Amino acid sequence: MKTNGGDRRRIRALCWSQRGWRGAGMAQKKYLQAKLTQFLREDRIQLWKPPYTDENKKVGLALKDLAKKYSDKLECCENEVEKMIEEIRCKAIERGTGNENYRTTGIATIEVFLPPRLKKDRKNLLETRLLITGRELRSKIAETFGFQENYIKIVINKKQLQLGKTLEEQGVAHNVKAMVLELKQSEEDVRKNFQLEEEEQNEAELKEKQIQRTKRGLEILAQRAAETVVDPEMTPYLDIANQTGRSIRIPASERKALMLAMGYHEKGRAFLKRKEYGIALPCLLDADKYFCECCRELLDTVDNYAVLQLDIVWCYFRLEQLECLDDAEKKLNLAQKCFKNCYGENHQRLVHIKGNCGKEKVLFLRLYLLQGIRNYHSGNDVEACEYLNKARQLLKELYIDPSKVDNLLQLGFTAQEARLGLRACDGNVDHAATHITNRREELAQIRKEEKEKKRRRLENIRSLKEMGYSTHAAQQALHAASGNLDEALKILVSNPQMWWLNDSNLETDNRQESPSQENIDQLVYMGFDALVAEAALRVFRGNVQLAAQTLAHNGGSLPPNLPLSPEDSLSPPATSPSDSAGTSSASTDEDMETEAVNEILEDIPEHEEDYLDSTLEDEEMIIAEYLSYVENMKSATKKN
């Protein structure tokens, strides 16, 4: 995204600190659970049946022999393997009991995944009927697990739980997974001091208000983009651009949804940068929802949707809730397919458009890393090793010598420009400097051209409005005429019914109950029949110019499809809440809207390739961490 003229932000379209021992242990535990599940499936062992479970649903003696067999196979402690198998057995029995209970009573079981900070078992079962509302389920989860109800969000089926609808209406089913996102810190810390409690409650309230302001700000900006009549020098708005930085035309039916999708994505990315994953995820899921309102053809030709899939999976991973995302593999495969469609089989389309593909390698590094992590958590160590090694290889290729960045900084470039330029030019400082300079000049020229294009459009709209047409009618006619003023005027004259596309703030005093005799005489002087002239003036509410144009175009008569009185098609303009509330309320609403818009604009990066810029420090540590897990498993296999 970029700034141009006033406060425009352009949305590019075509186109950790080290984890602690607990995190590492969790990853290895998930791997072992996945491997044990594989072994049980391959050996067709049903743990909920004898000899592993007796008639009282207690553990059978045969489970110890099974633990010995698998511990030898995995080169793991027998007691640990036995505990894991027992855990799998208990879960299977719980699920079977829950299924039977659901069939007989209709009470469903929901698997609730709690935030990582909780020391207790983060995966818990909750029984509920599906006819309760989302608000009732949130209350039940808060009461059961010790949360403050207003400071948590529930994500089910990759969507935020809607409080006003029933679970059934939202597609919530038996055995579904529900993830709890917390908007405040540890309850234990809060209880230590009343002041801390008050501060953290305020923090949670601020975060909730921030989320609401985000929604409002994006809706305002998307509406301005849909209207495309704002003054670029005075009013902030968003614009959609291709990979070269030029504005692109999007069908009106999809423009607002696409703008909201990309706006929510950028806001989510801003939270990701600040490592506020609990707030980032709702934004990313909202972005996914709006992207799905766009046509499939559009999603297959832009890389934004692919990047969003990576960001969603990354967010679940950083929340340590990857198992809540049942379709992580599907999302990663979708991203890979989308990159292929957008960039070409061997990135040839990308090279043709941008001249290089070095910067986009960052996206593939993230893709391979997440595919490696997902495979490791699924017990597929061979595939995990393959993807992790591909990620490590890309990491080597994308490494940037800090001294080269310093050289470019001394030339007046930013650190971001330096990283992106060096990756685009395979680390050559001279080439990178030329690349950055050329790109700056190219974007400056594009901004100038786009600004002039916008200025001409506004002038054409003003010209049509001076002729008596509304802003909405002028806008639609210019859109149909590809910006040509003469053609737009022909369209308006040929379709006089477009005159009724009025603006919402049209003043009622523009109406005339009956035309003046002076205006009728003007039309009669032009050669039109007096009765027809009066009827035309009634239709066009006294506008002589529009009445004359329409009569001349239709051979001296009115088109039969036009109403003969404005009351037939016009209703009095609605009084806005701000009008009825008074000047003070209107001013307050305007200030709130300005604040919401400014918060969005602050988080939209200046550089259109910000999404490709990364120091890769987090990725480097995670690749090393997971490769060490895989290597440990390889060593154990060789010993066996």
Structural features, described:
The protein contains 25 helices and eight strands. It has 640 residues and is mainly alpha-helical. The strands form two sheets. A five-stranded mixed β-sheet has the order 4-3-7-5-6, with helices on both faces. A hairpin with a 2-residue loop joins β5 and β6.
For the largest sheet, list the strands in their spatial order: 4-3-7-5-6
Please state the CA-atom Rg, rounded to the nearest Å.
Answer: 31 Å
Portion in beta strands = 5-15%
- What is the structural class? mainly alpha
DSSP strand tally: 8
Shape: globular
Number of helices, counting only DSSP H or I runs of 4 residues or more: 25
- Biggest sheet overview: 5 strands, mixed
Uncertain segments are 1-8, 13-24, 185-197, 229-236, 503-512, 566-584
Tell me the span between the first and last alpha carbons.
Answer: 54 Å
Helix content: 55-70%
Mean pLDDT: 78
List the helices and strands and how they pair.
Blueprint: E1 3-4, E2 8-12, H1 21-42, H2 62-74, H3 78-105, E3 108-113, E4 123-128, H4 134-145, E5 152-156, E6 159-160, E7 177-182, H5 187-192, H6 194-227, E8 237-241, H7 252-273, H8 277-291, H9 296-299, H10 304-318, H11 328-343, H12 348-354, H13 361-377, H14 381-398, H15 402-410, H16 415-424, H17 429-466, H18 471-480, H19 485-494, H20 517-525, H21 530-539, H22 544-553, H23 577-581, H24 583-603, H25 617-639
Parallel strand pairs: 2-8, 3-7
Antiparallel strand pairs: 1-2, 3-4, 5-6, 5-7
Helix pairs in contact: 1-3, 2-3, 6-7, 6-24, 7-8, 7-10, 8-10, 10-11, 10-13, 11-13, 13-14, 13-25, 14-25, 15-16, 16-17, 17-18, 18-19, 20-21, 21-22
